[in-house]
Amino acid sequence: MATKKQSNNNGDEIPNQKTKHKGKHDKDKPWDDPNIDHWKLDKFDPSWNPSGMLDVSSFSTLFPKYLEKYLQDVWPTVKSALREHGVSCDLNLVEGTMTVSTTRKTRDPYIIVKARDLIKLLSRSVPAAQAIKILDDEMQCDIITIGNLVRNKARFVKRRQHLLGPNNSTLKALEILTGCYILVQGNTVAAMGSFKGLKQVRRIVEDCIQNKMHPVYHIKILMIKRELAKDPNLANENWDRFLPRYKKKNVKTKKAKAKEKKPYTPFPPPQQPSKIDLQLETGEYFLSEQKKSAKIWQEKQEKQADKTAENKRKREAAFVPSEEPAIQDPNILKNDAVDVNAMAHSLKEKAKEFGKKKTSKNVDPQAYIASKEAPPKKRTKHAKS
Fold first, then answer.
1. Segment 305-350, tens digit of pLDDT
2. Which of 199, 241, 255, 306 has CA atoms 20 to 30 A from the CA of 62?
3. Three-state SS sequence of the chain
4. Which segments show compositional bias classed as Basic and acidic residues (predicted)?
């Protein structure tokens, strides 16, 4: 294909560039519009599929026997909810199955998958009022199998209890933070919510059962992320520097004491004597029934007397006075008594000397002068009366 040549202002010839022509499939599409929100889920309109389904699709699932009575009670509610979407359902109590299938009135091609999830949730003990919400377009479900993640049964039960927490507090916190409904039942965990919430729930459940991280740490991380999401300045930044990092600690456990291995002998241990053999050795086997009963009664009386004496001794032990501490060295106590007596004698002499000095210095002359007024008479008992 020849290309035309053009000349510039200086007269030089410049070859013309090839123009790219769009093909049949490179045309602008009607949905290539920035104003359209491609993540928005529009409600299904029956006019989009007026002819209905070309073939019948059906799903079936088993349910445990203990749910038979409950499913019988709630089945009319489930049936009416599915009838609104043109889906028929059947409850077979003989085979223990639930079946859903499309009809001529079915217009939404994805509603049969939603109905399949509905019967799966019902078979895992999810309440019917909660399970019917799966028929909404914005509600999704995920059934996580946890029974095959741990081999040890006791360890599995303990880790599953970590997921629930005391009084189901951990499970309620996870439901609030993830926005999902979570039900732990047997070897499975049924969750209902958005895609983002279900992804978080699956990661938390698997980390808990595999002992990678405790659910409480996941709750702390989710709470920090919720606070960071409120700040518009951090919307396009990496949050790893704000999130805590938990290291797994290996806690040392006490090792069980190993039993001493006895030396190996090819011979079996000697047979222990039976009850009859013991009676033959003591001669009790040949006693009459009357004598046997009398001997049993006598042994019972002796045990009772011993028990009574023991109880009496325990009661009287509370009234026994405690013993005084024994004197270790009598010479030390004698010396101490002599020192105390000498100190008391010296203090008395000093007190007498001090009293004599005080009387000689401070003499009151008025005490020796007689006064005109007579001293008051003491009142006697007869005067009072």
1. 999 999 999 999 888 887 777 655 556 555 656 677 788 888 888 8
2. 199
3. CCCCEEECCCCCEEECCCCCCCCCCCCCCCCCCCCCCCCCCCCCCHHHCCCCCCCCCEEEEECCHHHHHHHHHHHHHHHHHHHCCCEEEEEECCCCEEEEEECCCCCCCCHHHHHHHHHHHHHCCCCHHHHHHHHCCCCEEEEEECCCCCCCHHHHHHHHHHHHCHHHHHHHHHHHHHCCEEEEECCEEEEEECHHHHHHHHHHHHHHHCCCCCHHHHHHHHHHHHHHHCCHHHCCCCCCCCCCCCCCCCCCCCCCCCCCCCCCCCCCCCCCCCHHHHHHHHCHHHCCHHHHHHHHHHHHHHHHHHHHHHHHHHHHHCCCCCCCCCCCCHHHHHHHHHHHHHHHHHHHHHHHHHHHHHHHHCCCHHHHCCCCCCCCCCCCHHHHC
4. 25-34, 297-317
